[in-house]
Amino acid sequence: MLTQPDRPAGRGMRASASAVKQLARWRGLELFQPETLRDAAAQARIGAACPDALVVAAYGLILPQAVLDTAPLGALNVHASLLPRWRGAAPIQRALLAGDRETGVTIMRMEAGLDTGPMVAQARVAIDEDDDAQTLHDKLAALGARMIVDALADAAAGRAHSVPQPESGVTYAPKIDKLESGIDWRAPAADLERLVRALRPAPGAAARWRGETLKIWRSRTETASDVPGSVLESGPGGLLVACGRDALRILELQRAGGKRLAADVFLRGCPIEAGERLQ
């Protein structure tokens, strides 16, 4: 099994083992964590395993042609979008940010381009109004697991077929930048509500209040208006904050270094008054 080297993660930024590494340890499987697959030694080690097929899911490293050519049945990628929409690193978050009503999983044969290979299978999933990046990820992971098993069986039996991706409808899903997590209250409330869901559970949408960062974890849109960023209500129902269009009711939030709290609990210990401004 291949996975990336351990990376810093969490509040303490300690080196964290990936889910693939944890599974390999539990199953007693051989694990390989190369920094790059462009290294000849890494490519030789993969070739020595004599794989029939390669399966890639959210690996995050470019597979050079020498690696793609290693397996006689090819390299299959489990991609969390309806290609050619949302090629790239963050298809789940980008679909949520765009307000897409559906997404899905595409099994594709990998080639040198960025998610450009021919499609072996594709299935659709509705995006529910309360879906966030985690819930949508879990739906797509379960679907993708079933699909890749079928795709491998078809490949082994010689009945796999692939079709080129459509030339129209191509969009790209670049990795989420932390700068994108900042809330601009001039935006419509509907856009900000999607931002909150797309960035949950990480990195979280962030506002500024009295010079400190507040992470906004749950919210909903309501009809109200005032100067963007103005707190219209503060109480048991949470915070209602004016946006460029309509208003955002904040239902769960967190101070830097603190715990995620329901808004009413948060406000009991940290009052934010109606009339204050969030940035």
What topology emerges from the helices and strands here?
Elements: E1 7-9, E2 14-16, H1 19-27, H2 40-48, E3 54-56, H3 65-68, E4 75-79, H4 91-98, E5 102-109, E6 119-126, H5 133-157, H6 189-198, E7 205-209, E8 212-222, E9 231-235, E10 238-242, E11 247-255, E12 261-262, H7 263-269
Parallel strand pairs: 3-4
Antiparallel strand pairs: 1-2, 4-5, 5-6, 7-8, 8-11, 9-10, 10-11, 11-12
Helix pairs in contact: 4-6
Keywords:
279 residues; alpha+beta; Rossmann fold; Methionyl-tRNA Fmet Formyltransferase, Chain A, domain 2; 2 domains; six-stranded antiparallel β-sheet; four-stranded mixed β-sheet; 7 helices; elongated
Structure description:
With 279 residues, the protein is an alpha+beta fold. It folds into 2 domains: 34-157, Rossmann fold; 178-269, Methionyl-tRNA Fmet Formyltransferase, Chain A, domain 2 (Roll), CATH 3.10.25.10. Helix content is 26%, strand content 24%. It contains 7 helices and 12 strands. Strands 7, 8, 9, 10, 11 and 12 form a 6-stranded antiparallel sheet that branches. Strand 10 (238-242) and strand 11 form a beta hairpin. The longest helix is centred in the middle third of the chain and has 25 residues, at 133-157.
Span between N and C termini?
46 Å
Per CATH, the class of the largest domain reads Alpha Beta
Largest sheet: 6 strands, antiparallel
CATH fold-type name of the largest domain: Rossmann fold
Summing up helix and strand content along with how strands pair, one would put the structural category as alpha+beta
Helix content: 25-40%
CATH architectural type of the largest domain = 3-Layer(aba) Sandwich
Instruction: Give the H and E element order.
Output: EEHHEHEHEEHHEEEEEEH
The number of strands is 12
Number of helices: 7
Poorly predicted runs are: none
Cα-atom radius of gyration: 22 Å
